[in-house]
Write a structure and sequence with these properties.
Number of strands: 11
CATH topology of the domain at 176-275: D-Maltodextrin-Binding Protein, domain 2
Oligomer: single chain
Keywords: DNA-binding, Transcription, Transcription regulation
Shape: rod-shaped
CATH class of the domain at 176-275: Alpha Beta
Strand content: 15-25%
Helix content: 40-55%
Number of helices: 10
Pfam families: HTH_1, LysR_substrate
Structural class: alpha/beta
CATH architecture of the domain at 176-275: 3-Layer(aba) Sandwich
Protein name: LysR family transcriptional regulator
InterPro entries: LysR_HTH_N, LysR_subst-bd, WH-like_DNA-bd_sf, WH_DNA-bd_sf
Family: Belongs to the LysR transcriptional regulatory family.
């Protein structure tokens, strides 16, 4: 048989070598039929093809019985070592795939930590308990910055208001956030809250957010005298606490000041709006076990 050289090992070669290994292990074509699930004639064709590809006779078969040639024994030794290595590699990769190890980069808008439904906190706690090899990186940013970080791959997950979804991102609502209109105890309105009328609010200096708002929030802010702007909720709180401005804050964020008597809501039954907070990931992202596990925990029934 004419000698040949293998330029590379293909899937076809691996399949034929597995047939050869079974034939050698069971001592013949007929004996290997049940193990391989193919007929003896098909096995014979596979063996002939393997010998042609390798350019050497691997076994003697005929009336005298089945026997490996010297070259066949060397091929069996080398192919067995290679096939075992492949199986070991596959097993290790499968274990790695189920192993939580790596980084999780999360972008959050500020002041979500006071939200009573602590789904993000609960999911992070669960992830930590499952593996101490996950490194959490949290950055506090504006909604626009979070969306840009998700689109360019710097962030894996973001949490921000679901207002105008961007193409290329997937939004999954986490919970609704209610915002009320507040003034501080130093504001002239504070002592008159029980008697204030809605038409009186239009003349009072107010602060508006410079980030995107939904239609409900926009309509309420248009009825106010918004002479100041702020990039985030903490900045809005600073201006409200001066006693010179009124402004909207999430009720969970303002709760601590309300309990201390430093702030109070204004006409809470009507001066209020609701916005959905969403967990956001990039569309078509590569599979990532850590991100998938975090999202599963975030939306599990036990999340608080």
């Amino acid at each position: 048989m004419k000698a040949t050289s293998l330029s590379q090992i293909t899937d076809v070669d691996l399949r034929l070598l597995r047939v050869f290994r079974a034939v050698a292990e069971y001592g013949g074509f007929a004996a290997a039929e049940s193990a391989l699930g193919i007929t003896a004639s098909a096995i014979s064709l596979h063996m002939s093809e393997l010998e042609r590809r390798l350019g050497m006779r691997l076994c003697q078969r005929g009336r005298s019985g089945f026997a490996l040639t010297d070259q066949g024994r060397e091929v069996l030794r080398a192919s067995t070592a290679m096939l075992v290595a492949i199986e070991d590699f596959r097993s290790e990769m499968n274990q790695l795939q189920q192993r939580l190890r790596g980084e999780l980069n999360i972008g959050l808008m500020n002041n979500l930590v006071t939200q009573p439904r602590m789904r993000i906190t609960s999911a992070l706690r669960s992830l930590r308990r499952q593996s101490d090899e996950v490194h959490i990186n949290i950055s506090m940013s504006t909604p626009g910055e979070i969306e840009r970080g998700l689109l360019d791959g710097r962030l894996h997950v973001g949490a921000l208001p679901l207002i105008n979804p961007l193409s290329g991102l997937e939004y999954r609502p986490l919970y609704d956030e209610v915002s009320l209109l507040y003034c501080s105890h130093d504001h002239p309105l504070f002592s008159q809250l029980a008697h204030v009328r809605a038409d009186e609010l239009a003349a009072l200096p107010a602060v508006a957010p410079s980030y995107r708002m939904n239609a409900e929030a926009l309509a309420l802010h248009k009825g106010l005298n918004c002479v100041a702007k702020a990039t985030d909720r903490e900045a809005i709180a600073f201006l409200i606490l001066t006693g010179e401005y009124i402004g909207f804050l999430p009720d969970h964020y303002a709760a601590a000041w309300v309990e201390r008597g430093s702030m109070a809501p204004i006409l809470p039954d009507t001066m209020r709006f609701r916005v959905a907070i969403a967990a956001v990931t990039r569309s078509g992202r590569r599979q990532n076990l850590i991100v998938d596990r975090f999202m599963d925990e975030l939306f599990s029934e036990t999340a608080e």
